[in-house]
Amino acid sequence: MRKFTSLLVVLMLFYSVVNGFASDYTGKAIKAKLASEEIEGDFMTVWARNFAAHMKEWSGGKIEIDVYPYGTLGENGDINELCQLGVVQFVFSDYAWISSFVPQAQVLTLNYLFPSENISETLDWMVREGEFMPLLEKKFRDNGMVPFSIMFEGWQWIGSQKPINKMADLKGQKIRLMSSKMLVEDYRAYGTSPTPMNYGEIYSGLQMGLIDAQVQPLFAHYSMKFYEVENYITKIGNEPFLGIPTVNKEFFDSLTPEAQQEMRNFWINAIIPAGKWIEEKNMEDKAKMQKANPELKFATLEGEALEEFKAAAKTVYPKFVDIGGEGSQEVLDALLKDVKAAKEVVK
Fold first, then answer.
1. Which residue, among 171, 168, 191, 194, has the nearest Cα to 181 in the 3D structure?
2. Hey, what domains does the chain have and what are their CATH numbers?
3. Could you tell me if 93 and 76 are in contact, meaning their C-beta atoms sit under 8 angstroms apart?
4. Which helix (H) or strand (E) holds 93?
5. What is the per-residue pLDDT across 237-260, written as a single tens digit (0 to 9) for each?
6. Reduced to 3 DSSP states, what percent helix, strand and coil does the chain have, rounded to the nearest 5?
7. Fewer C-beta neighbours within 10 Å, C or N terminus of the chain?
8. CA distance between the termini of the chain
9. 0.70 exceeded by the pTM?
C-alpha cells in the first residue's frame, strides 16, 4: 500500500526550507510539553511531532518537546486551559475550542468568509502580510498565550443519518459542534439544534441516536471511525477547519529571541506544505471510507442549495461583535480586509 509518497516529498522540501534558518542555539536546555487535540496520526499531532523534531535538531538537542495526543491530558477544553496556566507549554487547538479563553478567535468560525480554493495560500499571505494576525496575537497575549500561525486542515463535512440536499434537510437536526458560541449561531441559522458533546462521545452519540449529525474534517471522520455510524457525509463549503498552534506567553517570553523566531518560522513556513499534506491525506482517507463502507454517500452542495446556506450565514456576522469580546469589531474588520487583499494576490 502506498504510504503518502508524495506527502513525504512535500515534507522533505519543507524541511529543506526551514533548515535554511538553522543557527547555533546558545540558550538554556528546555524540556517542554505540547498537548494536541487530535489523535496519533492526525494533522495536529503529526505536525506537532514535526515541530518537536525540528526544534530538537535546531537546538542541538537542547530543546526537547514531548507531544501528548488527544485524550492523554484531558478533553479539548482542558488542554487549552493547561496551556494558559503553563502546566503545558504548547497546545495545538482550533479556532473554536480556544474561544473559551480567547473569544475573538471565534471570528474564524464565521461561515463562507474564506474563498473556496487556495485556503493555505490565503492564510500564508494573511499571517505574513496582513493586519489580522497582530491583532489576534494581542488578544491571545491578553489571555496568557501566543499564537504562532493559522493552519488549514481541510474543509468541514457534516456526517449525518439522513441526506442533506438543501438547508431545510437540517431543520431540527440535533448536530454536535465544537465548543463555540459563534458556531452555535452559525448552525442555528441553518435550522439545526446544536447539541454539546465531548469529542470522545460522538461515536456512541451517533450510534445511540443522541445526535443526528456532527461536523468534522474528512480525516477525523476516518480516524475516529465516525463513518461506521454515518450514512451521509456532506460538504456545504462553509467552514475550513483551522488549527492554531499556541504557546504559553510567560514561557515563550522567557526564551531567547533566536528560539522565539525559529518557532515562529517553523509554523509560518509550514502553512502551505501542511495544507498540501492534509489535502492528499483527506482524499486517501475518503477513499478508505468508501471502500470500508460502500453504502456511505458523499455529496458536495452546489448552485441554489449552496446560495441558500450562504445567505443564512451572512445574517450571523453582526452577532460576532457582541460575542467576540473587546475589540471584536476591529478584529472582524481586519480579517475581512485581509481575506479581500489575499484574494487579489493568491490566484
1. 194
2. 5-154+241-280 (3.40.190.170), 155-239+282-319 (3.40.190.170)
3. yes
4. strand 90-94
5. 999 999 999 999 999 999 999 999
6. 55, 15, 30
7. N
8. 34
9. yes
